[in-house]
Amino acid sequence: MAQIINLNKARKKKAREAASAQADVNRVKFGRTKEQKALEAAQAEEAQRKLDQLRREPGEPAGPVED
Known about the structure:
Elements: H1 7-30, H2 34-54
């Protein structure tokens, strides 16, 4: 005799397993380590600092000052 199963529970279980498998794939594909996040933040901060150093204030001459 065949075993009786609840189709609703079987469908939900299958969906949970599929979602879990997709989550594993996404962790590998998009996951970053703490060190990688810190490095990217430091690089972004350094780039912003360099841009701020090159920013001209209103009223400054556009090019090199000639005497």
